[in-house]
Amino acid sequence: MVKHIVFAISGFLIVLQLGIFVYREETAEWKGYQATYYKKLAEVVGDPKLANSPIKVTQIWDKKLNRADRCTTCHAGIANPAFENEPQPYTTHPNFKDGGYISKHAFEKFGCTICHEGNGQAVTVAATHGVVKHLDRQPLSGAYVQTACTKCHYELYSRDVYWPEADILMKGRDLAYELGCGACHAIRQFGTNAALAPDISNMGSKTELAFTLVHDFSRIESDDHITRVWEFEHFLDPEKIVPGKPDAPDPKDRTSPTIMPNWGLTEDEATALTVFTLSLRDPDVEDIPAKYFPKIASHEGFLQYR
Ligand code: HEC
Ligand code: HEC
Ligand code: HEC
Ligand code: HEC
């Protein structure tokens, strides 16, 4: 009996110690970045006192949007034009300085995850970047951030519009028109309702869990089993990823390979089509408050569509 109690207590202590260790490591990470930021700020401004600014988790929260983004805890120089030549995570946001287009999306109102997705409340590098296991909205960076623009800029689906700020999305959109995806797939954003293939109008608003439950990753080369990777490899070779079961022993189990064509796309083209596909959003799921929509005439169609 005594042995059991000693065993239980020591087990508990080990778990507790481990917990404290993990907690310390994680807090140390963001504290280190923030302390360095203040040191740099003190130098830039020429005020040594700033180097001792209190260290704390910072958060952007907007009641209407209902997101709490803590990215600025480490990315503390994100809206400071003087930090343009500093390394990450201190750098000024690209296209922010001198009234660049990103500055039209005031961080104190928009936060970060409205464009970057991911877990806004986490404060470690591992939980906010790259591929994060079991996270329903994977962090977006590089070209993939462009999948978020159409949450608000609906006119980007019009072929008369070209925005260089969303160049990869524009390339994907044009390819999708040229290759005739709308002949098989319903794509509400293009006004097509074909039924030869799944409706892809809400593809970008699906959670990772919903996607992985109904997609076979066994032929995916990458170890990252997430939606954008499946889409990308599927565009490069649809039949490899969805070969069907033409040779199943029981005729009842036989299914044909996918009819989606293999266009021999380049990797850049497959990326552009993946960005396009994941830009197709369900407005009910995204639930962007009206005050976040640009007030321009070309958005009337979108507001109507909502
Ligand atoms: C613990 C500190 C920390 C937090 C919190 C943090 N970042 Fe970072 N971030 C970094 C560091 C360090 C780098 C550069 C090194 C790297 O890429 O890992 C970076 C790089 C980046 C990059 C460019 C590299 C890449 O992954 O593509 C993006 C984009 C980014 N962060 C976005 C975010 C967003 C959005 C959030 C909030 C959801 C966030 N970060 C939260 C520390 C942080
Ligand atoms: C309006 C959409 C939008 C918002 C809001 C936004 N970003 Fe970005 N961010 C982008 C885009 C687009 C890129 C990719 C730019 C590129 O690669 O040229 C990017 C790139 C970055 C990078 C990588 C920079 C580099 O040099 O590679 C970091 C870090 C970053 N964002 C952090 C943040 C943080 C932190 C916030 C919140 C304070 C934020 N972003 C809010 C759209 C946004
Ligand atoms: C949550 C909604 C939202 C998202 C997401 C968003 N924007 Fe915006 N964007 C706005 C609003 C609001 C304005 C301000 C427009 C105005 O002043 O009428 C704006 C302005 C702009 C402008 C300036 C052009 C103009 O008409 O004034 C550009 C360019 C732009 N956004 C590009 C992007 C890109 C590229 C992305 C994706 C990386 C993006 N936006 C994501 C809401 C959004
Ligand atoms: C000849 C008909 C056809 C054309 C044209 C076509 N597809 Fe498909 N597509 C399919 C079929 C059938 C499936 C379901 C089987 C599979 O996953 O391959 C599919 C699957 C998909 C999926 C996965 C959907 C899901 O929920 O699993 C995406 C995304 C997709 N197609 C995008 C596109 C895009 C973008 C284009 C244009 C570049 C396109 N397709 C052109 C027939 C087509």
Automatic annotation (TrEMBL):
Residues 167-296 form the Cytochrome c domain. The chain crosses the membrane at residues 6-23. Residues 241-261 are annotated as: Disordered. Keywords: Heme, Iron, Membrane, Metal-binding, Transmembrane, Transmembrane helix. The keyword Protease does not apply. GO terms for molecular function: electron transfer activity; heme binding; metal ion binding. Residues 241-255 have a biased composition (Basic and acidic residues). The keyword Membrane applies. This is Cytochrome c domain-containing protein. The lineage of its organism: unclassified sequences, metagenomes, ecological metagenomes.
